[in-house]
Each structure stands twice: as C-alpha cells, then as structure tokens.
C-alpha cells in the first residue's frame, strides 16, 4: 500500500510540473514577480495534492512528496515562490491534524529554509545538474533527520523508511532535472524571441506559397498591425499593389525553386503618398531535417536614410571636387605619417619643378628632396640641405603660415592647418603680385619718410629730425660718458641779402650752404640740419670741444672758398657766424646744450660776425 501511495505521489508531482511548464509557456508575458508567485502557487497545489494522496504510516504521521515540491519551489522559485508553497502546505497539514503536525511543520520550515540557502548559493540564473543534485540531497537529508528524530534514534529506522527517503531523493532529483531542462529551454526560447522581436530589421518566415508563418513585431507595425499573429496567413498581395506583390512572389518562388539564397538585394518601394523607400533584403530557402523544402526565411532592412546619406555624400563630393577644380589655390592633404593623401592640379602647378614628386602616396621627405635637387626654392642653402629637409618635414605638422620664394621670381604663401586626427591640410597661394605691391609700398614709405625728414629747400635734415636726434644722442652720451658737440650756424646779414638779390637768390644761397654742410659732415653719425630760417645746426656725436671747433673753422673756410657775392656785407661775400658747445656735467638737458651754443653764436655776431665762438665757459676762437 505505501508503495502505491508513493507512486501516486510521484505521478502527482510529474503532473503538477508538466502543467506548470505548459502554463508558463502560454503565459510567458508574466512579470518576474507574477511568475514566481504562479510557480509557488502551482508547487503549493501540487504539495496539497500529494498530501491528499498520502498514507498514514504512524499515528498522525503521513508519507507523501510535499518536501520535493517545497524544495523545488525554494531552490528554483525563490522567496516569493516558497512562501506561497509553504503557506499552502502548512495550511493543508494543519487541517489534516494528528500527532505529527508539529514535526511536519518543522520539516516544512527546514526544507524551505535550506532550499532558499541553495537558491542564493547557486544564484538565480544558474540551472544545472549540480543544483538539482544539491536540491535532492537536501530533501533526503532533512527527511532522514526528521525520521531519526521521530523514531528516537538511528537504530529504529526501518528499511521502508530508507526506501521512502530514496524515493524522495529520486523524485526530487527528477523534478529538479526537469525544471533545469525547462529553464534552459525557456532561456533559449526567450533569447530567440527577444532577438526576433527586438531586432530593428524586419524578420519573417513564409511557407512554400509565400504566406507569412511568423514575423517579428516590426513587420506587423510596418503594415499597421499591432500583433505579429495578425500577419500569419497573409501574403504580399494582401499588403502591396498587385504589380509589386507579383514581383515579390515571383522572386521568392525562384529562390525556393533554385535553392539559391538572395543576399543583400536592394529594392525601392514607392508608398501610397509617393515617398520612395529603399530596402536591403536577404532571403534563404528553408528545408526540414529530411531535406524537403518547407518555405523561406527573410530579413529586410530599411536603408532609406542610408541611401539618402550616401547620395548627399556623393553630391557633396561632386560639389567639393568641382570647387577644388575651380579654386585658384593649391590644396593638399597629408596623413599623420607625412604622406600625401590628396592634392589638386593647382597644387602641383604651383611647384612645376617638383610636381612629379607630389603624387598621392609620396612622403614629405621625398617631396622636399625633389625640391632641393631641382633648385625650385631660392631660400635653401646648399650647405645645409639635410638640416633644411629635416626641419621643413617637421614643420608640416605645425599650424603656421610661411612665404616661399621661387626660382622664377614668384612668391607663394603656404598655410598649414592640423586636423583633429593629426593630418595636415596645406593651402598654397600665389602672392607674387601682393609681394610686388608690398615692395612698392615699402619704397614709397621710405621715400615719404625721406621727404618728411628732409628740408625741402636745402636737402639736409629738418628741425624735427634734429630735435629727435639731439635727444637720443644726448641721452646716449650721458650714459656712455662720451662727448657730444653742437654747432649752431647763422648766415650773416641774410635779410640784407634777400632785400638786395631777391628771395629766389636767397633760396639759392641757402642751398649752397646746405651743400657745404653736407660736404664737411663725412661720418654717418654726424647730422646737418636746417634749424630754422637762415640758421643751421650740426650735431657731432663722440666729438670733443677741439674737434667741434676744428669742424666749425672748416665750414667757415669752405664757405669762403665758395665766395657767394654779398654787396651789403663788409666782406663782400656771404659769411656765417658759428656758436660751438660741448656736453658737460653742467648741461642737464638737450635744451641747455642748445642754449649754450646759441649764446656762443650770439657772441660771435656781437664780436663782428664771420667768426667762431665757443660756449661761455670755453675759450674764444676767431
């Protein structure tokens, strides 16, 4: 009788697990919590059924397989599942009554607790033979322990009890293995379903008559369906215009007839609103395990956006190519390794002697060697060719602008800019006209500066230049503790000369005096200037008092030799009076030096003109 009960319990356990497997497959959309509670409920009902089929082996003690279902619920379902199973089991056992209620409840708690330990020990996602074996061993161990406790020792354990424990072990192991297999199967199914359902492309399977057998959700939504099941049994004739559907049908029938797959086939599709979409399709014939044709599987990808981007890229490339062809500047791109990736014809034309070396794939060092060999640039020294090549190659990867003088007189401006990936963009422009304009402007500026610094009448420096020069030379002489001489010169009786000979002759007289001043100031540092009206000045850096007096006398003598007629002068020729001053500690400013020379000039005029006088603290000289 007990064996029949155990066999009935095993059948009940198998039935419960089988029912759960079918229900779980049907209700795969359940959440994790719902699945755990459902699993616990099913295992709990199985435990109740097992207890209803139990046999009383002793007063108040029953033999059944509730421990198997409790263990499976705890190990494979988790806390929520075993809680549901344990509650149903405890309620049923209490309702059955008898002397063994308390040990039974303890057994239920022990199996549940140890089952949860195994659940967390192996992990929720693990389902293998080791886990199943551990579950069976745990049930057998708890059952044996409770039997020893109930029987009052190991010596009272009967052969029947050991056989019952063995049956529980086997039943639990079998149930756990079935659950393990079911979990693996479910996982594979879920992965496949997730891959098919969540894939961004259109996946579908058709039978031999091109009717949809299964599709993913994207296919259904693309055809205004909410469920994949709504696509089953439909054909392309139900979804597209007849001409389009016929083309699809003929192509699929050809694939199945020939057995040759269709891979990456691009096809356009014009929708009802006139918008064109592009699809990339692959289809393969399907055969069963016997090799018989059963249909085809297909995957279609919407590549409309990709086609648009490709077309835009082609359009941009054409525009860029046209722009580079029409632009006047040369353009070149070098990769991070210094190799020429691209250049337009204008770039090669800018360097006619090394154009043959400026081809895609050429290294910058090879190009520079061609420049040197051909003598294309006039700024390359023959004595430092290797150094120039090395430095110029390194400068390719510096953001800079440079100007290049060419062998034929042209000037090129080369602008180098670095990209984010380390490549270098080089733009070359012909700036020969600009350089010519710059040169003309420079010459004009120098000429204008000369005009601005020169007295228009006498051709010597003007007062502004003299004022700037005396300030600079005075400061330099004070710093270096060197000499600085100054001559102030005034034409004697010049007003009378103008009144007698006229202003034009007066201007000629001043020009001659300017020539005399230039003739006696030989050193580049000396400066002869028109001080104002008929007054002149000579600034003599590094000249002491004696040297300044000597130069003053030379000037007076040179003017005598010119013998410019002057009927109103007592000497009958044009003469000058000269005041000489030299820097000393008592001159704190250039103005004091000029004032001293002016006082000496006044003294020369006072003492009869046509003479040279030194400053008051210096000796007088006739």
Task: Describe, in short, the structure shown.
By secondary structure, this protein is an alpha+beta fold. It has helices spanning 2-26, 32-52, 66-77, 79-96, 101-122, 129-151, 159-198, 217-222, 242-258, 304-326, 345-350, 364-374, 385-395, 432-453, 463-480, 494-501, 503-520, 545-562, 590-606; strands at 55-58, 61-63, 202-207, 212-215, 262-270, 276-287, 293-302, 330-334, 340-343, 400-405, 411-418, 424-430, 484-491, 527-532, 535-541, 576-582, 612-614.
Explain the overall architecture.
This protein has 622 residues and is of the alpha+beta class. Helices cover 54% and strands 18% of the residues. The protein contains 19 helices and 17 strands. A five-stranded antiparallel β-sheet has the order 4-3-7-6-5, with helices on both faces. A hairpin with a 5-residue loop joins strand 8 (330-334) and strand 9. The protein is elongated, with a radius of gyration of 57 Å.
């Amino acid at each position: 009788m007990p064996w029949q009960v155990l066999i009935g319990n095993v059948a009940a356990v198998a039935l419960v697990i089988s029912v759960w497997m079918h229900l779980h497959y049907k209700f795969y959309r359940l959440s994790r919590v719902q699945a755990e509670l459902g699993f616990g409920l099913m295992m709990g009902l199985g435990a109740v059924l097992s207890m209803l089929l139990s046999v009383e082996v002793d007063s108040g003690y029953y033999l059944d397989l509730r421990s198997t279902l409790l263990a499976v619920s705890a190990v494979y379902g988790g806390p929520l599942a075993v809680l549901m199973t344990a509650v149903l089991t405890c309620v049923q056992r209490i309702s059955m009554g008898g002397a063994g209620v308390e040990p039974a409840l303890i057994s239920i708690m022990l199996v549940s607790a140890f089952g949860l330990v195994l659940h967390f020990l192996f992990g929720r996602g693990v389902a293998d033979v080791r886990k199943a074996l551990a579950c069976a061993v745990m049930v057998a161990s708890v059952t044996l322990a409770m039997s020893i406790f109930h029987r009052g020792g190991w010596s009272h354990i009967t052969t029947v009890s050991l056989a019952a424990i063995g049956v529980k072990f086997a039943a639990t192991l079998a149930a756990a293995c079935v659950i393990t297999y079911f979990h693996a199967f479910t996982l594979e199914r879920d992965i496949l379903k997730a891959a098919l359902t969540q894939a961004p492309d259109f996946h579908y399977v058709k039978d031999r008559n091109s009717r949809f057998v299964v599709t993913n959700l994207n296919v259904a939504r693309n055809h205004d369906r909410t469920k994949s099941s709504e696509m089953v049994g439909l054909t392309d004739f139900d979804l597209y215009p007849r001409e389009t559907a016929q083309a699809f049908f003929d192509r699929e029938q050809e694939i199945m007839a020939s057995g040759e797959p269709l891979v990456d086939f691009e096809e356009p599709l014009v929708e009802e609103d006139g918008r064109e979409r592009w699809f990339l399709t692959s289809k393969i014939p399907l055969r069963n395990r016997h090799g018989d044709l059963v249909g085809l599987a297909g995957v279609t990808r919407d590549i409309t956006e990709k086609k648009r981007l490709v077309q835009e890229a082609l359009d941009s490339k054409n525009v860029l190519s046209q722009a580079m062809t029409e632009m006047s500047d040369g353009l070149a791109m070098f990769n991070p390794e210094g190799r020429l990736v691209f250049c337009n014809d204008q770039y090669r034309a800018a360097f006619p002697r090394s154009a043959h070396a400026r081809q895609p794939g050429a290294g910058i060092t090879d190009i520079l060697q061609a420049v040197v060999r051909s003598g294309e640039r006039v700024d390359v020294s023959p004595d430092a060719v290797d150094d120039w090549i090395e430095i110029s190659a390194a400068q390719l990867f510096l953001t800079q602008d440079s100007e290049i003088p060419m062998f034929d007189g042209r000037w090129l401006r080369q602008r180098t800019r670095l990209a984010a990936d380390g490549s270098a963009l080089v733009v070359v422009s012909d700036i020969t006209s600009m350089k010519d304009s710059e040169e003309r402007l420079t010459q004009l500026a120098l000429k204008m500066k000369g005009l601005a610094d020169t007295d228009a009448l006498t051709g010597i420096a003007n007062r502004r230049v003299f004022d700037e020069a005396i300030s600079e030379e005075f400061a330099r002489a004070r710093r270096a503790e060197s000499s600085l001489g100054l001559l102030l010169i005034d034409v004697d009786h010049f007003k009378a000369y103008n009144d007698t000979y006229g202003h034009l002759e007066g201007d000629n007289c001043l020009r001659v005096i300017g020539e005399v001043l230039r003739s006696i100031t030989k050193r580049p540092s000396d400066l002869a200037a028109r001080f104002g009206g008929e007054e002149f000045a000579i600034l003599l850096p590094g000249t002491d008092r004696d040297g300044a007096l000597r130069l003053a006398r030379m000037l007076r003598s040179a003017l005598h030799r010119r013998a410019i007629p002057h009927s109103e002068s007592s000497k009958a020729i044009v003469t000058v009076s000269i005041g000489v001053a030299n820097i000393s500690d008592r001159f704190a400013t250039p103005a004091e030096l000029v004032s001293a020379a002016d006082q000496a000039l006044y003294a020369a005029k006072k003492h009869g003109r046509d003479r040279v006088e030194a400053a008051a603290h210096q000796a007088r000289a006739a």
